[in-house]
Amino acid sequence: MTSISAEFLAPDVLRRRGLTPSSIQHLASGRRPADAAELARMRVDHAGEWAFVHTFDEAEPDVQDLIRKAMVFGDSAVASDAIEPIWRPSAP
Questions:
Q1: Which residue range(s) make up the domain with 36?
Q2: N or C end of the chain, less CB within 10 A?
Q3: How many domains are there within the chain?
Q4: Whole-angstrom distance, CA of residue 61 vs CA of residue 46
Q5: Residue 43 burial class via C-beta count within 10 angstroms: exposed 0-12, middle 13-18, buried 19 and up
Q6: For residue 86, is it within any domain?
Q7: 28, 30, 33: which is closest to 9 by C-alpha?
Q8: Order of strands, edge to edge, in the sheet holding 2-3?
């Protein structure tokens, strides 16, 4: 999870990480942008607010298999680096 206005979530650079606008989910609304234009608007309207970055589609059987294997691996751990937000949205 990160700020929706994080530089690596800019619509024109998402592809570098294999992401699409719908890979991003705005935490407060639960909404995933349908396209780059909507993501750009969300980044302005909700600058500094939290967003999830979905890297896997958990509905895909191959991904489900990967998750199962990871969870039973002897050295795996489930953790979070969650923190209280300390930045404030910048003015447009």
A1: 2-57
A2: C
A3: 1
A4: 34
A5: buried
A6: no
A7: 33
A8: 2-3, 50-53, 24-26
